[in-house]
Every structure is written in structure tokens, then in C-alpha cells.
Specification:
Strands 6-5-4-1-2-3-12 form a 7-stranded mixed beta sheet, with helices on both faces. It has a 3-stranded antiparallel beta sheet with strand order 7-8-9, covered by helices on one side. The protein has a two-stranded antiparallel sheet with strand order 10-11. The chain contains 19 helices and 12 strands. By secondary structure, the chain is an alpha/beta fold. β1, α2 and β2 form a beta-alpha-beta unit.
């Protein structure tokens, strides 16, 4: 196997840099909102050094939901572990800073509308001319080409456009928006896996890459099976199996999943309706799907008669998959969630200790404040510029001219 130049000359030397898979990888994150910042956060959680270039007023993602000074829950989750350099890219000096940082980076992330970064002199070809093996990823709504490429996009827009909303309907049949920014979050996941694959490719072959990662394509990829079902069944796809869904109980809600015939028979026995297992309208998987509404109505009537905990205990003993429908406070307080290490509690300065979800495959939080910390706007501006060769007088001049902004860090 040929040896390629990739920051380290051998894989063994790469491992020696640090015990996290991306230790030593430098990333410039010029994204805002959720999708791009999510990808950058995942890189940081796996050991990369991620410098977030954001406007002087901060990433607009900091304004989502209730604000706590220049932070929000969304900003904390999707920007933790990064260093913030607040810089005005509308100025020539600001663009010079971005070019210097990008030329020394392994990965560049951006989420401007198509063409904007090139007009700023920060497009893929511009950075590639300085760093031939750079991995450059563009996050956008509709992609880099096509008649919709220049349109502004939010998660809600792509939820509607991609068909996602048709999976979530009100009782009257009106398509509804998911209460979480699902398309944004999944786009960040697809972006991260694309970058990770590109890094492996560069390690093997010494080549960089340009990656077009759109919310549109991510929504399509995530929904691929449902879209194919819709296509095959000419717009009337059947349920995968029945019964499955949420049942109202005497004091709450319970989600059940009776996929196999044995599960369904056990469910009927627990409900005291064993005859439904052999009923000629429900005694096969296909019949249950064909008579879904009738069967589900019968089951709901039974579940309303007792409390959630009673059903949960008996169904679990009978081997029927189920779960009470938790509120977030219930989820956080659950003993299994705690023992499984699902969350760590990290110090967020003035906000105090707050739960941080551990990332699958990344190291668990163990008092590591740096990986859990979401920087304030421009918190690391001076430190980043110093590390890239700017002198104190030069940094002071840039700050005085309004090209950069330096913020404080909470104690």
C-alpha cells in the first residue's frame, strides 16, 4: 500500500496524536442554524478542533427559542466543543482572516446560499487553490443547482416539500409540522458521515473532496423506504403491521407494537379479549392491516379501562413490546436512562449544570467542560488569531475597526 501525505505519514503516527478518532483534524465551520452546526459539533465531539466563524452579532441559530444572553438550548446542543471567532466577512480583512484559517484546515463547512462563498473568495475552488486536499462541504436547502437552489429554506419548508408532513396528520387529516427540526438534524448527521468518509478517502488516496449536502437530499434519503412504498402502492401504502401505535389509558398514554402473530395473541390475552386473536377479520397479518381502523378502535376501548403502569407491567411480562409515553422530565428521571449513561451533566456557566446527551460512538462526558461548552459569540477570537500568526497590535486594530469581536467567557 502506498504511503500518502495526510497530516501524519502513517496511521500509527495518527493514533499517537490523540486517543479520539479525529484528534489533530482542523475544521473551519462557517455555518449557521442547525444542520451545519450539528455536523461541526459531531466533528468536535470526536476530537477535531473546530473553529466557528460567525457574524459579529452571532449565528442566527442562537436566537432559536428562548435566549439566555447570547445562548439558547439549540445553540448549546449544536455548537458545543467549538471555538468561536466572530468576524465580519463583508470586510476585506475579515475575508483574509477566513482564507488564512481555511488554508490551514482539513475541513471547511459552509451554509450560505449557493454562490455566496465564491463571491466572497471563499468558495471550494478558492480554498482548494491554497489547500489541494481540503474537504469542503456545502449545506443548503435545495442543493447547489436546479431552479430552487437560490430559494431561502427552513426545516418547515423542507418538511412540507419532501412529503414529511403527510406522515403526521391531525385527526381531521391536515398534514402537520413535526415539533422538532427533524430535517435539519438529519442533514447534520448525513453531513458528518460524508465528511468522515471523505477523511478516510483522503487518508488512503491523498485526495480532497467537495460535498454537496442539501436538506432536500437528506430528507429524501431518510424517507426513502416510505417514498418507495408510496410509489409501489400508487399513493396508498399499507401499514407495515397492525396493531401498532399509541393507546389512551385511564391516566395517560401507552405505545404498543405487536408485530408478530405471537405478539398479537399475547396482547389479546392481556386485554382479556383472547377471542380477537382468532376472529376471522383479524386472524392474520394481512387481515389486521386490511381492517386496521376497526381493530384499533376495539383495542383503544380496552386500554382506556386501566392505568398505564398496569398495562405496562402485564404487557412486558407477556413479551409484548410497549412503552409509556414519557414527557421529557420523565425520560431524564428514568433509572435506566441514568444507568445507561444517556446524558452527562455539564457546567454551562451562568446557566448551571444542564443535561448533555452523549453522542453514540464518542467518549462519554466525564466532567469534560470543553466538549460540553458552547462558546459565546467571539469568545475565542483573540486566541484563534494569535494561534494563526496575528500579533497583539494587529488583533487590537481589527477589533477597533469592527472586523472581529472578542467576548467574555462565563466563570
Amino acid at each position: 500500500m502506498r504511503t500518502v501525505r495526510y497530516r501524519w505519514t502513517t496511521i500509527r503516527e495518527a493514533v499517537a496524536v490523540g486517543d479520539q478518532s479525529l484528534s489533530g483534524i482542523k475544521v473551519v465551520d462557517v455555518t449557521q442554524g442547525i444542520a451545519g452546526p450539528h455536523a461541526g459539533m459531531l466533528l468536535a465531539q470526536h476530537g477535531a478542533t473546530v473553529i466557528k466563524l460567525e457574524p459579529l452579532e452571532g449565528d442566527w441559530g442562537r436566537t432559536l427559542g428562548k435566549r439566555y444572553d447570547d445562548l439558547s438550548a439549540q445553540a448549546i446542543v449544536f455548537n458545543r466543543g467549538k471555538k468561536s471567532l466572530a468576524v465580519d466577512l463583508k470586510t476585506g480583512q475579515g475575508r483574509d482572516i477566513a482564507r488564512r484559517l481555511a488554508s490551514d484546515s482539513d475541513v471547511v463547512l459552509e451554509s450560505y446560499r449557493p454562490g455566496v462563498m465564491s463571491r466572497l473568495g471563499l468558495g471550494y475552488e478558492d480554498i482548494r487553490a491554497m489547500r489541494p486536499d481540503v474537504i469542503y462541504l456545502s449545506i443548503s436547502g435545495f442543493g447547489q443547482r436546479g431552479p430552487y437552489s437560490g430559494l431561502p429554506v427552513t426545516d418547515s419548508v423542507i418538511q412540507a416539500f419532501s412529503g414529511w408532513m403527510t406522515l403526521h396528520k391531525d385527526p381531521d387529516g391536515t398534514p402537520t409540522r413535526s415539533g422538532i427540526t427533524a430535517i435539519d438534524v438529519m442533514t447534520g448527521l448525513y453531513a458528518y458521515q460524508a465528511i468522515a468518509s471523505a477523511l478516510i478517502r483522503r487518508l488512503r488516496f491523498g485526495e480532497g473532496a467537495y460535498i454537496d449536502c442539501s436538506m432536500l437530499q437528506s430528507a429524501a434519503a431518510f424517507q426513502a423506504a416510505k417514498i418507495l412504498e408510496h410509489y409501489f402502492e400508487k399513493g396508498r401504502p399499507e401499514a407495515s403491521y397492525v396493531p401498532v401505535g399509541v393507546m389512551p389509558t385511564a391516566d395517560g398514554y401507552l405505545s404498543i407494537s405487536a408485530m408478530r402473530d405471537s405478539h398479537y395473541a399475547a396482547l389479546c390475552r392481556v386485554l382479556g379479549r383472547a377471542e380477537l386473536a382468532t376472529h376471522p377479520r383479524f386472524d392474520s397479518r394481512d387481515k389486521r392491516r386490511a381492517n386496521k381502523e376497526e381493530l384499533m378502535a376495539l383495542l383503544r376501548d380496552e386500554f382506556r379501562k386501566r392505568k398505564t403502569a398496569d398495562w405496562e407491567r402485564e404487557l412486558t411480562e407477556a413479551g409484548v413490546m410497549n412503552s409509556r409515553v414519557n414527557a421529557y422530565q420523565d425520560f431524564l428521571a428514568d433509572g435506566h436512562v441514568k444507568e445507561a449513561g444517556t446524558f452527562g451533566y455539564a457546567d454551562h456557566g451562568a446557566l448551571g449544570l444542564a443535561p448533555v446527551a452523549n453522542i453514540p460512538g464518542a467518549d462519554l462526558f466525564a466532567g469534560d467542560r470543553e466538549r460540553a461548552w458552547c462558546p459565546h459569540v467571539g469568545e475565542h477570537s483573540r486566541a484563534v488569531l494569535t494561534a494563526h500568526g496575528y500579533g497583539e497590535d494587529e488583533i487590537a486594530s481589527l477589533e477597533a475597526a469592527g472586523v472581529i469581536r472578542q467576548a467574555r467567557r462565563d466563570a
